[in-house]
Amino acid sequence: MAMRDIRVVGDPVLRTPCEPITDIDDRVKALVEDLLETVDHEGRAGLAANQIGVSLRAFSWNIEDEIGYVLNPRIVEVSEEEYQDGDEGCLSVPGLWFPTERAWYARVEGIDLDGKPVVVEGEELMARCLQHEVDHLDGMLYIDRLDKSQRKKAMRAIREML
């Protein structure tokens, strides 16, 4: 296992949709170990594979003392009437937090390292994490979801950061 460096905004890997995992080989097993180790630090809620430079559909989470992972995740359900609008940040956009609307509840389906079906679901912070990480795997950053005025502030702050 290895603690991996986090790719930051501007790195093209963050804007490239990730490929599905078709073969669970040693490379994928090592990726999961790295995702779990790298997310296992205070202040880290989730980590997508492309954030550590690997364009495969996998992410890990660290929510309320539970650490886990899912391969080939896809969002299959979100609450349609209940939303949350709290500040959201991202390891790939370090130090910046902006109000981001997300569904209150989300459910993700995928597989584990044995190829068995996995369901991950939750409300509030877990739901935010699931939506955020699947966005990463689709080549999106949370700043893409900001309203126009907040996005303008975010882009200005990012330019100053780079």
From TrEMBL:
GO MF: peptide deformylase activity
Cofactor note: Binds 1 Fe(2+) ion.
Transmembrane regions listed in the UniProt entry: none
UniProt KW keywords: Hydrolase, Iron, Metal-binding, Protein biosynthesis
InterPro entries linked: Peptide_deformylase (IPR023635), Peptide_deformylase_sf (IPR036821)
Residues holding Fe cation: C90, H132, H136
Cofactor names: Fe(2+)
Entry similarity comment: Belongs to the polypeptide deformylase family.
Stated name of the protein: Peptide deformylase
Lineage, uppermost ranks: Bacteria, Bacillati, Actinomycetota, Actinomycetes, Micrococcales
